[in-house]
Every structure is written in C-alpha cells, then in structure tokens.
Design a protein that fits this description.
The protein is mainly α and 148 residues long. Among the domains are: 50 residues; 44 residues, no CATH class. The chain has 7 helices and no strands. Helix 2 runs antiparallel to helix 3. The longest helix has 32 residues. The N and C termini lie far apart (74 Å). The relative contact order is 0.04.
Length: 148
C-alpha cells in the first residue's frame, strides 16, 4: 500500500496545482492547465525519467499531429453549423415538426391549442400570412369539433 501511495504522489500534486490554483484565484482555468502541463513535463523528464531530451522532437511531433486533428474536427464542425444556419435547416425542421403537431388530437399530455407562437403577433406585418393563418385556424377549429 505505501508503494502505491508514493507512486501517485506526483500525479496528486498535478491535481492540487489545477484545482488549488483555480479555487484560490491564483490562476484562471487556462493558466492552471498550462502550469500543470509544465509541471507534468518536468516530472516526466526528471523524476520518472520516462523520456530523454533526445525524445523531445518525436514527442512534439506527436503532440502537433494530435492537435492538428482536433483543430480540423473543430473547423469542419464550425463550417457545418454555419452552413446549417445559412440554409436554415433547424428552422425548417422546427416548422415541419410544429406543422404536424398542431393537428394532433387533444389529450391531457399536450397543452391546449397549437404548439407555436401566437398567430396574430407573428403575422401583424404580413397580410398574406394573416389570411393563411386564419384559414389554418378555421381548419383547426373544424378538426377539433369533428373529434369531439
């Protein structure tokens, strides 16, 4: 048991640096991560002696490769979200879902009325929308009465 505790001592110090630095207000989370990284690098080189100075270029190469892959994923995801917003796919999916829910029969699980914005408020400036919403409202009322 004492050998296990002594082996984990340096890893525990890393946690203390991160959490202690953030909670005491000495570091921001980003600065705390940077300080812990430098500490872990020094412990790896000088205490554990897992890597030598001659291994440093290979380690940096691996780190850069991993960082590049992560940055590519982030870049492509940002571009994908941007394109989805330009094409307005989330709005179209929401409109499609709400369009099919408003004609669902009434039950205790759904709130009364259609599950969308108030039709008068959303159509004040557009008369063609008002006519369309009035027509939908008449159809919805007729549908609800036919169910009862």
């Amino acid at each position: 048991m004492p050998r296990i505790v002594s082996d984990t001592r340096w890893g525990s110090v890393t946690i203390v640096i991160i959490m202690g630095g953030i909670l005491s207000g000495v570091f921001t989370p980003t600065e705390s991560a940077a300080v812990a990284r430098v500490f872990a690098f020094r412990v790896t080189l000088f205490v554990y002696r897992d890597y030598k100075w001659r291994d440093l270029p290979h380690l940096v190469h691996r780190i850069v490769k991993t960082g590049a892959m992560v940055m590519m994923l982030i870049g492509f995801s940002v571009a994908f979200v941007y394109m989805m917003a330009i094409i307005q796919i989330p709005a179209k999916v929401t409109q499609f879902s709400l369009g099919h829910q408003q004609f669902a029969p009434e039950c205790e699980c759904l709130p009364p009325g259609p599950l969308r914005a108030h039709p008068i408020k959303s159509a004040r400036s557009k008369p063609h929308r008002r006519r369309r919403l009035a027509l939908k409202s008449r159809h919805l009322t007729a549908f609800r009465q036919s169910i009862k």
